[in-house]
Amino acid sequence: MRYLNLASALGALCLTQCTSLSLEECSSSDWYTLGLADGNRGATAARLNQYQKDCHEFNLKVDSSQWQQGYQQGLINYCLPENGYRVGLEGESYYGVCSDNQFVERYNQGHQQYLVNKRLAEIADRLNAIDSEISSINNTLNSLTDKAELLKQKNTLLNEKSHLLDERSRLHQGNMRFKFKF
Predict the structure, then answer these.
(1) Neighbour tally for 67: CB within 10 Å
(2) In whole angstroms, what separates CA 140 from the centre of its chain?
(3) How far is residue 113's CA from residue 47's CA, in Å, rounded to a whole number?
């Protein structure tokens, strides 16, 4: 548990470290719009702390109130259940910023479909590679007298191909179940 908390803290730190603001950005930012954009992306509220730290280096202040107003409005947009499905389907990370259980349910559904789609793409890539290897073996078989080893390799590839085709068929039928908890 201690390591999980440390990993979460490091992940949040990484997210905030990527948001450094320049002198120009600190002095001319529309804090409401910046908060709105952060909320629309599902960023954590810790982003404000990083902005404050960045701007403090230039002795400039962040309008926290304006940022918070924009951020809250952005979260309203982000936390819509249909957006949860889109976020999950695109394989994006979710940082627990929504209080709506429907968002999380739809995110989980979208993420499940993302994992299925990802696996289907992996299967398609491997099937193409197997077909290419089999074709190469067939071409070599035509020119060799000792065919036993190549036939064994070919049978192994055909067996793997059969298993992948079965898995792909099951994935297309939706028989696979995944559970994600946040």
Answers:
(1) 25
(2) 42
(3) 30
